[in-house]
C-alpha cells in the first residue's frame, strides 16, 4: 500500500520547489491548477489576496513565503462528510 502524503509534506515540497518570487501563473502550476490566476486577481481586488504583492515588468508577483502562508491559511481539509 502506498504511503499517503500529509498536508505538512505538501507545503514542505512547495517550499522546496517554488522560486523566491511567484507569478499568478506559477502558483496555478505549483498547485496543480487548484488556484487560477483569475482567482488570485479577484482575491487581490477584494483585499483578501496574498500580501505583499509586487509589480515587476507589469506582472503581479508574490514573495514565496507570503504565497505559501496564504495558501496554508486558505486550505481546508475535505473530510468527505
Main beta sheet, described?
3 strands, antiparallel
Q: What's the total count of β strands?
A: 3
Number of helices: 4
| 3D shape | globular
The CATH topology name of the domain at 19-73 reads Arc Repressor Mutant, subunit A
Strand order of the largest sheet: 1-3-2
Mean pLDDT over the residues? 93
**Broad CATH class of the domain at 19-73:** Mainly Alpha
Structural class: alpha+beta
Please report which band the strand proportion falls in: under 5%, 5-15%, 15-25%, 25-35%, 35-45% or over 45%. 5-15%
What do you see in this structure?
The structure is a single chain. The chain is α+β, with helices and mostly antiparallel strands. The protein has a domain at 19-73: Arc Repressor Mutant, subunit A (Orthogonal Bundle), CATH 1.10.10. It is built from 4 helices and 3 strands. The chain has a 3-stranded antiparallel β-sheet. A hairpin with a 2-residue loop joins strand 2 (54-56) and strand 3 (59-63). The radius of gyration is 14 Å and the shape is globular. The protein starts with 6 loop residues before the first helix and ends in an 8-residue tail after the last helix.
Describe the structure in brief.
This protein is of the alpha+beta class.
